[in-house]
């Protein structure tokens, strides 16, 4: 399946590969950016929530410090009033009945119509602090307890043994009778546990637990937490009893709500028992992970993996004066739940961006692909011979550069074909004309050799020399070479001139001059001999005995110059102009011999426009033919 898809859509499709690669890069980049963005918001929100968590702990610690200060202020006021402290001490040391007789005796001995007692003092305390619920005076020596409630009414005397009287507990915690009627939601929001313990050490001024939770029950709460203090006799400095001050947990809840601190908070007493929680699930988690939580370092937030709730940020503090332990729990999933909207937004934006980027990449690559196909199609037309193919792009980019380069290449190719290919055709045609003018040289050469040997045998040595020179000339023509050395070409011309000289019985003289070192240059075969032949045919005067031809070979800068000058009849001006016009024309004409025009065209074909023949003639005085061949 995958192989077939690759073969069909990707194997020879570069732009499809580019779309896939570009899309993958965009997808990976955007997804990575989205993940980092989401993690940034998670870390930022987590930092904010951890800061709020610490504020919750601080609010609780300040609240407990305030209640501690309230209890200490009550004791301070008690000890500062001699009547109140002595009444309280007498009451605790002698019992309620003895105290009543003591008050009657004091009243009778007093001259005042109103005598203050500690009942009024304790009753008035509830008006000062709305969180104050009960004030209990305990006399372990007499074995009783006396309680004031938040309505300012004092109750009867309760027996006080090792275990508190059940009626005392019912009167002290009337809310417990309705505990079974509290819904789970109300328990999670309002449940508290009191830490009052009337059997605590005589030196403790801190909160104690009155009724621990049972392990097999759901987390529950008592309505108060208690601050216990000793009452000492100011005369003997011995302990007369204890005063238990109950504070309601509504103050804790109100403090958290007023400070907008709604985190999961659990408060423990010195015995690590829960006295308050505002989240039932967190309280259960505390019971399940009690050992691990209590082993934490104080005031150092830590991320723990707790049973039933998973990863949780926990802060444990114990900095208040009551010795309460405050635990704040923040499950990690609460952070992610709070960021659900952010996560959804980031996901939607990421998907839209990916779609947009892929669409832009697809459209862009398709446009480039179409322009590339135009180039490919044009390149396929060139091998078919359509050299007039051109690509017209108006954009200014690399593909336009390629198109322009292609157009230049086609132009250059057309020029090259016209210049080289057609020139080669002309060269072949010129060689064919040259071969046709050689009159079957092989057969002629063999025949001439037979005649020469016959002439030598009969004693006609001059005839033998003529035949030898003629045979050498034809042997030179037979060579299947386009280029020969300049020395070979000059030697061939010398034999041709010598043959002519013998033929016309010394009516012709010739002079050959060539700079040393030039004989090794390669020149076109039959480039000089036709010029000499043209002179012998048209310029030689048989009636004269001073016919002379000069051949001068030299080098001028980067050119090899061969000048053939004669003192013949010259060329009429009209014919000279016609010859010069023919030399400037590109047409190859067949005159039945090599001819000046033929040699001129062959030179330009082989050596370029710098090569060629120049003719200068003065009628009845002579002609000069100059052959120029580039050698640079």
From TrEMBL:
Keywords from the UniProt entry: ATP-binding, Cell membrane, Kinase, Membrane, Nucleotide-binding, Phosphoprotein, Transferase, Transmembrane, Transmembrane helix, Two-component regulatory system
CDD domains recorded for this chain? HAMP
* Coiled coil location: none
Q: Where is the composition biased (Basic and acidic residues)?
A: 168-183, 203-218
GO cellular component terms given for this protein? plasma membrane
Enzymatic class: transferase
Record field: catalytic activity: ATP + protein L-histidine = ADP + protein N-phospho-L-histidine
Q: Where is the Histidine kinase domain?
A: 528-632
Q: Please list where the region (Disordered) is annotated.
A: 168-218
| Membrane topology category | Multi-pass membrane protein
Location(s), subcellular: Cell membrane
Residue spans crossing the bilayer: 20-41, 346-365
Domain HAMP spans what residues? Answer: 366-418
Q: Does the keyword Transmembrane apply?
A: yes
GO MF annotation terms: ATP binding; phosphorelay sensor kinase activity
Classification via InterPro entries: Bact_2-comp_sensor_kinase, HAMP_dom, HATPase_C_sf, HATPase_dom, His_kinase_dom, Sig_transdc_His_kin_internal
Write the Enzyme Commission number(s) for this entry.
2.7.13.3
Its main localization is: membrane
What is the name listed in the Swiss-Prot or TrEMBL entry for this protein? histidine kinase
Q: Which organism is it from?
A: Paenibacillus agilis
């Amino acid at each position: 399946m995958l192989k077939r898809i690759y073969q069909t859509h990707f194997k020879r499709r570069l732009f499809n590969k580019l779309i896939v690669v570009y899309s993958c890069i965009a997808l990976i980049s955007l997804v990575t950016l989205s993940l980092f963005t989401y993690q940034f918001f998670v870390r930022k929100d987590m930092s904010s929530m951890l800061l709020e968590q610490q504020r919750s702990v601080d609010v609780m610690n300040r609240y407990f410090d305030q209640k501690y200060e309230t209890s200490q202020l009550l004791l301070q006021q008690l000890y500062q009033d001699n009547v109140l402290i002595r009444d309280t001490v007498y009451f605790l040391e002698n019992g309620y009945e003895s105290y009543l007789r003591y008050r009657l005796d004091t009243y009778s001995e007093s001259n005042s119509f109103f005598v203050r007692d500690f009942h009024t003092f304790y009753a008035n305390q509830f008006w000062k602090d709305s969180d104050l619920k009960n004030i209990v005076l305990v006399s372990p020596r007499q074995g009783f307890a006396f309680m004031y409630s938040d309505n300012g009414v004092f109750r009867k005397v309760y027996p006080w043994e090792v275990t508190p009287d059940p009626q005392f507990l019912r009167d002290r915690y009337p809310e417990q009778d309705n505990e079974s009627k509290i819904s789970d939601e109300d328990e999670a929001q309002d449940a508290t546990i009191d830490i009052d313990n009337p059997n605590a050490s005589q030196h403790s001024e801190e909160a104690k637990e009155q009724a621990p939770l049972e392990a097999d029950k759901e987390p529950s709460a008592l309505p108060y937490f208690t601050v216990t203090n000793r009452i000492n006799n100011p005369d003997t400095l011995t302990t007369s009893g204890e005063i238990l001050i109950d504070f309601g947990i509504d103050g804790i809840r109100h403090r958290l709500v007023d400070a907008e601190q709604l985190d999961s908070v659990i408060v423990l007493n010195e015995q690590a028992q829960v006295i308050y929680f505002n989240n039932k699930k967190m309280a259960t988690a505390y019971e399940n992970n009690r050992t691990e939580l209590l082993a934490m370092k104080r005031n150092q937030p830590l991320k723990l993996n707790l049973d039933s709730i998973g990863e949780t940020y926990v802060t444990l503090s114990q900095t208040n004066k009551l010795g309460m332990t405050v635990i704040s729990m923040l499950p990690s999933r609460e952070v992610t739940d709070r960021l659900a909207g952010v996560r959804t937004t980031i996901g939607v934006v990421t998907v839209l961006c990916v779609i947009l980027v892929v669409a832009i990449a697809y459209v862009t690559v398709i446009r480039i692909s179409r322009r590339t196909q135009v180039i490919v199609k044009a390149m396929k037309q060139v091998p078919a011979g359509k050299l007039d193919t051109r690509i017209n792009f108006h954009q200014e980019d690399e593909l336009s550069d390629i198109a322009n380069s292609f157009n230049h290449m086609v132009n250059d190719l057309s020029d090259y074909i016209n210049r080289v290919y057609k020139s080669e055709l002309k060269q072949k045609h010129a060689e064919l004309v040259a071969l046709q003018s050689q009159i079957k040289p092989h057969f002629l050469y063999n025949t001439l050799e037979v005649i020469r040997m016959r002439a030598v045998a009969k004693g006609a040595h001059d005839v033998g020399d003529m035949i030898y020179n003629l045979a050498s000339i034809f042997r030179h023509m037979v060579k299947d070479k386009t280029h020969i050395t300049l020395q070979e070409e000059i030697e061939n011309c010398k034999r041709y001139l010598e043959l002519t000289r013998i033929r016309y019985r010394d009516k012709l003289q010739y002079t050959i001059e060539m700079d040393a070192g030039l004989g090794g240059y390669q020149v076109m075969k039959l480039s000089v001999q036709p010029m000499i032949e043209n002179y012998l045919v048209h310029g030689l005067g048989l009636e004269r005995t001073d016919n002379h031809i000069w051949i001068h070979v030299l080098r001028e800068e980067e050119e090899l110059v061969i000048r053939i000058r004669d003192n013949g009849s010259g060329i009429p001006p009209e014919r000279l102009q016609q010859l010069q016009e023919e030399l400037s024309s590109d047409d190859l004409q067949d005159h039945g011999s090599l001819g000046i025009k033929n040699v001129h065209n062959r030179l330009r074909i082989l050596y370029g426009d710098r090569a060629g023949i120049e003719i200068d003639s003065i009628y009845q005085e002579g002609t000069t033919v100059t052959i120029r061949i580039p050698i640079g």
